[in-house]
């Protein structure tokens, strides 16, 4: 194998490694964005439930809760099951 063949092979391997790293990075970014979206929906659901429990819910609160639940269901269908474990910063843990 000549010198140029070795250089070409090395470049091809480097290119493949770079593509693999880019794909893994994109998958991680997509996962983080999906988690952030789910966290926002869960926060909104919690706020709506809290407002209802405290007697401060607006008249359309039930419809808002239904909308958030539908959005969470659609999110799970697209991104997989949401992790519902409490975070370490939650009081009571």
Brief synopsis:
With 93 residues, the protein is mostly helical.
Write up what this structure looks like.
This protein is mainly α. Helices cover 75% and strands 0% of the residues. The protein has 2 helices and no strands. The protein has helices spanning 3-53, 61-79. The termini are far apart. The model has no long low-confidence stretch (mean pLDDT 92).
Defining key terms:
2 helices; 0% strand; 93 residues; mainly alpha; 75% helix
Q: What would you call the quaternary organization?
A: single chain
Helix content: over 70%
Low-pLDDT parts are none
> What's the story with the biggest beta sheet?
none
The total count of strands amounts to 0
How are the SSEs ordered, and which strands pair?
Blueprint: H1 3-53, H2 61-79
Helix pairs in contact: 1-2
